User: What shape does this take?
Amino acid sequence: MNKTLKKVILLAMIVGCCGTLLLTWVDYSGVQTLNGTSILTGNAMLTLLIFGLYGVSVLFYEKAPTVFFHTGLSGLSMLFAIMLSKFEMWGRFGNHCIGPYVGLSSALLTIVVYVLLNMKDQKS
Assistant: This one.
């Protein structure tokens, strides 16, 4: 696969994953609604670290594939962990909003695509 195409796919996946944060994640009886952006704004330094790790891993993967593979995977894992912790904290069983489910699914899909594309590169 072309290196530029792989980078575009991986960056589009993280943008799509973050796009799900614009959905409503919590609705407290119509009184207060929260979208997923509160996940990232509450942890500004961690958010910068996550996107920094992922961006560096995608852009400089060819320099040291093993190091940058683990760097990107750790950034994606941290993003998934933040999403999951907020979902658990806000209550998973009483939540009728679709945002957390779509967000967590897209984060998992992003991790899977990241691993598959980079493992395919390492084998060839």
Summary: The chain has one domain: 3-123. The two ends are 10 Å apart (CA to CA).
